Amino acid sequence: MSAVNVKPDDPYNFKEIVKIYNDYKVSADYQIERDGKIYQLIPEGRHSYHAGISRFTNGEFGLTKSGKQTLNKIAVGVELSATHTSGFTGEQYDALTWLTKHLMAKYPIRKELIEGHDAVAIPKGRKKDPGKKFDWVRYKSMI
């Protein structure tokens, strides 16, 4: 078995999503709900396990202890509650913009390295989020 496809019964139920993170030993730094509420899941200064084997599209990456390429240690993982068909809410874009500006004020985050899992996952296609429904032009113009 090389992958597990997990679909929560209620993809907008925060407690169910966190339970899945815990069950599969993955995490995100932040979770943004449909109403724009931001949950910090990992204390700042620690890294989450959100990207798996990955690298930025410009080729930059960090390394796991075993030498595999990953962004987990050098990138912040933000998850937005959505499905591949639902798209994202205005409240989520507003919250994501606020969070991004907050993090950019604290850390040397380069705008060109703000990318989705679908762009950075290795191999390509392993992760689908945020997907085609995410409006990158809208978001990047807001930050």
Report on the structure:
There is one protein chain. The chain is α+β, with helices and mostly antiparallel strands. The protein has a single domain, classed as Lysozyme-like, CATH 3.40.80. Helices cover 27% and strands 9% of the residues. It contains four helices and five strands; from the N terminus they run αβββββααα. The chain has helices at 14-23, 90-106, 117-120, 136-142; strands at residues 30-32, 38-40, 62-63, 69-70, 78-80. The chain has a three-stranded mixed sheet, with helices on one face. The protein has a two-stranded antiparallel ribbon with strand order 3-4. Strand 3 and strand 4 form a beta hairpin. The longest helix is centred in the C-terminal third of the chain and has 17 residues, at 90-106. The chain starts with 13 loop residues before the first helix and ends with a helix. The model is unreliable at 1-5 (pLDDT under 50).
Task: Please render the helix and strand layout as text.
Blueprint (H helix, E strand, L loop, with lengths): L13 H10 L6 E3 L5 E3 L21 E2 L5 E2 L7 E3 L9 H17 L10 H4 L15 H7 L1
Parallel strand pairs: 1-5
Antiparallel strand pairs: 1-2, 3-4
Helix pairs in contact: 2-4
